[in-house]
Amino acid sequence: MAISSFSILRQIGSIKIDEGNEIKFSVDAYKQSRYLSVRKYLKSETYSGPTKAGITLTSEVVTKIAKALATLPDDPNSIPDGELGKYARRQGLAIVLRVSSFNTAKGIDIRQWQEDETYTGWTKKGIRLPLEKIKEIKELFRLSAQYFEENK
């Protein structure tokens, strides 16, 4: 089957953040490429659907993130802040996986880092996953990596 336009191939699962927010994991396809989309969705009286908060990841990056997350303990309180991995997306662009604290909440950040002659720093692309959901996060990345392995 030729993939020529955007389509959702498989819903992997979701993490409920609060009453009106969840983060969905889905395998999507666009122009012959398959990737994992990790995106925040909003449900309110005026809007229901995806937000700009999110990131797309290649199968190779998904596998590496799944392996890095698998090494973390299930107890979020025993996970220290720090970088877990940096994965090349293309020249000058990488995906960074890290645990960080903001205010009083700890989370797993998956963000795009740009480094070239025009700009060095974080881009707008990325997502923050609540560390207290570490078991669910690990499982969703494991299932995503498994999907890509079984559907090469």
Extended strand count: 8
Name the helicity range.
10-25%
Structural class: alpha+beta
User: Which series of helices and strands comes N to C?
Assistant: EEEEHEEEEH
Figure out the total of helices.
2
The Cα radius of gyration reads 16 Å
- Identify the strand order in the major beta sheet: 1-2-3-4
Shape: globular
Instruction: Indicate the low-confidence ranges by residue numbers.
Output: none
Q: Beta-sheet strand percentage?
A: over 45%
Task: Describe the protein's architecture and organization.
The protein has 152 residues and is an alpha+beta fold. The strands form two sheets. Strands 1-2-3-4 form a four-stranded antiparallel β-sheet. A four-stranded antiparallel β-sheet has the order 5-6-7-8, covered by helices on one side. Strand 2 and strand 3 form a beta hairpin. The two termini are 13 Å apart. The model has no long low-confidence stretch (mean pLDDT 93).
Features:
alpha+beta, four-stranded antiparallel beta sheet, 2 helices, 19% helix, globular
Brief rundown of the structure:
The chain is an alpha+beta fold and 152 residues long.
Secondary structure elements and their pairing?
Blueprint: E1 7-18, E2 21-30, E3 33-43, E4 48-57, H1 59-70, E5 82-90, E6 93-102, E7 105-115, E8 120-130, H2 134-150
Antiparallel strand pairs: 1-2, 2-3, 3-4, 5-6, 6-7, 7-8
Helix pairs in contact: 1-2
